[in-house]
Amino acid sequence: MPKKRYTPEEIIQHLRTVELEMDNDNGKFYFKLVDGERVLLQSTGFASPKDAGARIGILKRGGFDQRDPTVVLGDDVEVADAQAALAAFAAEPDKTGA
Asked: What mean pLDDT is predicted for residues 18-30?
């Protein structure tokens, strides 16, 4: 069965958040772009919250590249879905400070 593709308008109707957290084991900072319980994108780890925030800002300005080793797609997330979510996220008021 083919997966439903969401339009930016449909995505913007759902709450998306960026979660920034520190891993106490390795001291790195990670972020995830989530839609409800579904992880759309997640980072591989940054040395500081400032670096993570800067990368979030780049993503909001259309800087997603699936070859970027610092950001990976969530399970079963298509590139087009991630790009649509980022476009909708970029259209929202800034919640991250990035």
From this structure: 76
